[in-house]
């Protein structure tokens, strides 16, 4: 037993020694682990402490007074927009061109502001102000614009009318505003020079009765540096430039416009320009030759020579001979006193009748009636039958037709790559996909003038039929019955959903013909068709 006990003690001691011997080898990982745990606990404690400090701060409550003031101004703004829509509807009620205007293009708020400013300025400048605010406003307006302050309410009213009626023509409106500004500045400078260039520091009343502060700012430096004899022509050039901008008249067409205005003023009609008169002179001999040929009837078959109809014509039908009702009527006296139209000799007077009448056969009377004298009467030609209509041959002459300037056509609305309506449709499509638990998402869209194509990309292991089967659900969600699904889009790994736009863009013929696709096409019969769903111009 003692031996076993000692052996057991040795064994236990050896195990203990072995464990003690293995401890230094495994002590280093434990130290690293413990060190890491300490660091982690320290960082964790610091982060928790930071979060705890952040949570400890009470949230700042909004000031009730500021919230009330902000809500009051929002209410006023909404009421103002409601009144602006009502006023704009009244202005657009007349005529047919502005009734169906897209709400996205309307500028009712700006139009109402211009109309209100026009009314306020009219009450200040046209009538005697009696309030503190109106008197101050009258001094500011008259001091700034001088005598032209009387015309400012009218200009603002016209600008408000154009903004409410034709907001889509904002480019033309901006051009007119720039031209009127240049014209007004030039006129104010000339009026200020004519009044002796009064200074606001010495004679403010004289400034109000002339060109105002604006006229003084424009004319005083020019008058001091170049004298009035040079300043006035420069200001006239500025006014003329403003007039050309307002009327959209190029400088090259100024002589033609001046000639037209002079003809209208003198009641002479529109003058003939050299190109037009030359064309008419070249056409007149052809008309005379054609008329002579028709009257003579030399050809008989009614064929026309090549080149007779080199100029455009109104109708392919040939002109018929004038009817009897269109021919000039002859007086009864001319028919009574002129000689026999058939050129026959007048028979001698009949001898006195004998006592006994002599019976003659009826054939002799008829023969005698048919012949008068020695020569028989000429029988008139029968009325020819009306000519049948025929297509006139095209001209083979060397005349070249020149296309008109494409700028004569009005531009359409500016195409918008993204609108609020597109975002609404994207949200609706996303909601339908989430409702039916389909792993797909709307990745983008391509907006056209009338239709937008939305792109849907599928997730892994998702069948295309799951999306194409939701056509009616998509139509219900986007509130449109005209929904078309393209699976897939050519050249893309995506499904296309084409939905009509609620805010359509206007595509004008001028924009199509001015596009590179039309200008690079040199075929004489090119036709502008419009734009496709991707907004590209289509010609044929």
Kindly list the characteristics that best describe this protein.
alpha+beta; 540 residues; Threonyl-tRNA Synthetase, Chain A, domain 2; 18 helices; transmembrane helix; two-stranded antiparallel sheet; 52% helix
The overall pLDDT average reads 72
The largest sheet has its strands arranged as 3-4-6-5
Overall outline = flat
Q: N- to C-terminal separation?
A: 117 Å
Work out the number of β strands.
8
What's the alpha carbon Rg, rounded to whole Å? 48 Å
Structural class: alpha+beta
Main β-sheet description: 4 strands, antiparallel
Helix content: 40-55%
Secondary-structure element pattern, one letter each? HHHHHHHHHHHHHEEHEEHHEEHHEE
Give the DSSP E fraction (strand runs of 2 or more residues).
5-15%
Count, helices = 18
Unreliable parts: 1-54, 275-280, 282-302, 306-310, 324-333, 340-346, 355-373
